[in-house]
Amino acid sequence: MTTSPATHLPPDHPLSRGLTSESALLNQYRGSRTSTGAAAKPERRPVWFMRQAGRSLPEYRKLREGTSMLDSCLNPELASEITLQPVRRHDVDAAIFFSDIVIPLRLAGVGVEIKPGVGPVLDAPVRTAADVAALPELDDAAFAPITEAIERTTAELGRVPLIGFAGAPFTLAAYMVEGRPSRDHLGPRAMMHADPQTWNALAAWAADVSGRFMRAQLMAGASAAQLFDSWAGSLGRADYQQHVLPHSAAAFSYVSGLGPADGAPAPLVHFGTGTSEILDLLKTAGADVIGVDYRLDLTEATRRLGPQTPLQGNIDPAYLPAEWPVLEAHIRQVVAAGSAAAGHVLNLGHGVPPETDPEVLTRVVELIHSIGP
Ligand SMILES: Cc1c2[nH]c(c1CCC(=O)O)Cc1[nH]c(c(CCC(=O)O)c1C)Cc1[nH]c(c(CCC(=O)O)c1C)Cc1[nH]c(c(C)c1CCC(=O)O)C2
């Protein structure tokens, strides 16, 4: 398995066309709180939501009717339309590409489904050295439907940046070892100690497919990428450092420095839940921006990471059904806590819960934009 060196993005890529200087989101990701463009006018405070494209939107549920989750992701027209829905409705400052962390598995030929209300389920779990050795190779040509969906999306988005993503090796491998979602991820954590060689081979395979997935999205026109290590919070520091961090760094190496020939590289974001105790380690994997879950105050995150690290987060999704004044006070507190960091992009501290009233999300965006830079 080889990691490919970073290359330049195509000349007609949104970043090559000067999207950065127009985008409050990309400026915050780069740690510059005000525009570096000639106008240098104050910008609105950027916000987007993890899982903004999905079940909280009636227009999403309607469009998805009769098509399975992964088939929807691989239908360029559908994936593009679903990506655009929350941008139109909420006026968020970025689109997140509608796809899933297990899409590279499906494209490599691994049998996987997303079971409604359950999550990713594999035909056969990957538990032995022979299972790992039998994993298929992923050919970059398989990303054709992803590339087409992204090209369609960026053509519609204009100046709104598109964020690509992938699952981090631990989170992806956790689904592969367990074969389905699990609470404590004992399978992959046990493999690290019982059979470290097999663990390393599996995590390296996962890093390769996730790295390629992120790279394909950036090459096709995404302006930033986020690595989701949703379940890294189940790991102690030593396990994270020894058995996981090198593989996350390998995934990032596929996209590190990837940018236009004459411009700054696409910003990279790293997010996990329950990662307060490993936040400093997370940062060393190669991202520019750290996504913080709802458990840690952003002032404390800045203390742990230093003021130079731009942050993303961390409105607690548990506040979304609360009375508006309660939610508003919480958001104002998050905005204030984020002000010590070099950059701050508002987001939730985890994904939008499916039962969320979409009108509340629109109101949250309006409030954040009204607060100003
Ligand atoms: C762990 C993980 C997965 N997928 C993802 C993660 C990391 C983020 C996180 O921690 O939430 C990432 C993901 N999945 C999806 C997106 C699309 C973009 C967006 O954030 O709006 C993104 C970024 C769509 C999706 N991925 C999924 C849905 C729901 C599918 C449906 O409509 O039924 C969506 C919109 C399915 C999915 N896929 C996965 C799970 C756990 C589930 C939920 C299962 C369920 O409760 O039904 C795996």
From TrEMBL:
Transmembrane segments: none annotated. The record marks 100 as: Transition state stabilizer. Pfam families: URO-D. Pathway: Porphyrin-containing compound metabolism; protoporphyrin-IX biosynthesis; coproporphyrinogen-III from 5-aminolevulinate: step 4/4. It catalyses: uroporphyrinogen III + 4 H(+) = coproporphyrinogen III + 4 CO2. GO terms for molecular function: uroporphyrinogen decarboxylase activity. It comes from the Bacteria. One of its GO terms (cellular component) is cytosol. It is found in: Cytoplasm. The keyword Lyase applies. The keyword Lipid biosynthesis does not apply. Its EC number is 4.1.1.37. Residues 46-55, 163-179 form the Uroporphyrinogen decarboxylase (URO-D) domain. Keywords: Cytoplasm, Decarboxylase, Lyase, Porphyrin biosynthesis. It is an enzyme of class 4 (lyase). One of its GO terms (biological process) is protoporphyrinogen IX biosynthetic process. CDD domains: URO-D (cd00717). Belongs to the uroporphyrinogen decarboxylase family. Catalyzes the decarboxylation of four acetate groups of uroporphyrinogen-III to yield coproporphyrinogen-III. Homodimer. This is Uroporphyrinogen decarboxylase. It comes from Nesterenkonia sphaerica.
